[in-house]
Design a protein that fits this description.
- This is Zinc finger CGNR domain-containing protein.
- InterPro entries: ABATE, ABATE_dom_sf, Znf_CGNR.
- Pfam families: zf-CGNR.
- The structure is a single chain.
- By secondary structure, the protein is mainly alpha-helical.
- It has a single domain, classed as Jann2411-like fold, CATH 1.10.3300.
- It has 6 helices and 4 strands.
- The strands form 2 sheets. A two-stranded antiparallel sheet has the order 1-2. Strands 3-4 form a two-stranded antiparallel ribbon.
- Strand 3 and strand 4 form a beta hairpin.
- Helix 3 packs parallel to helix 5.
- The longest helix is centred in the middle third of the chain and has 20 residues.
- It is elongated.
């Protein structure tokens, strides 16, 4: 599925933030931002890193709860605390694109507006495309961009573990082979 480019990239970044471990370093957070083509003008500070990790905790329910009404309520609550003032920007030689907070504003404010708006776009496109891995013990959040929209796992490794465990369970229940 092709999401709105702004919503898709921002929703992917929201998932990446949700998947960070508590206490993740400012350097690692800055690298995650760069990997998702979010260009901070400087290194994220320790205080900003702590605030972004708290924000990630507020983003998690949007991925974890599949109920549309609760998802909409959660995203509306996120949007309500942002400094959202949409405008079109053309900074750094980039093509025109939407900004939901001033590009020179505090990075935490910009990321709150960016990720909340991105999740809003994703939900409006197809709320079932946001999820958390189905493998027991794995809580990795993802945005399903697959063609058929049937993603259940964060990646191939978790899918294989579930399928192999299911096969072994069925094989054990059938009893020993009579070869």
């Amino acid at each position: 599925m092709h999401f709105n480019p702004y919503g898709g990239a921002a929703a992917q970044l929201a998932a990446a933030l949700v998947n960070l471990e508590p206490g993740t370093s400012p350097e690692t957070i800055t690298e995650v931002l760069r990997e998702h083509d979010y260009r901070p003008f400087r290194q994220v500070s320790p205080a900003e890193a702590a605030e972004l990790l708290r924000w990630a905790g507020r983003l998690r329910p949007v991925f974890a709860d599949a109920d549309l009404d609760r998802r909409v309520g959660a995203v509306n609550a996120l949007l309500a605390v942002t400094v959202s003032r949409p405008y079109i920007s053309r900074h750094d030689g980039r093509a025109p694109h939407l900004h939901f907070a001033h590009e020179r504003g505090p990075i935490v404010d910009r990321l709150r507006a960016y990720t909340a708006s991105g999740l809003a776009h994703a939900i409006c496109e197809d709320h079932t495309r946001l999820g958390v891995c189905d493998r027991p013990g794995c809580d990795v959040a993802y945005v399903d961009t697959s063609r058929n929209g049937r993603r259940r796992f964060c990646g191939v490794r978790c899918a294989n573990r579930v399928y192999v465990a299911g096969h072994r369970s069925r094989t054990a229940a059938e009893g020993p082979s009579r070869l």
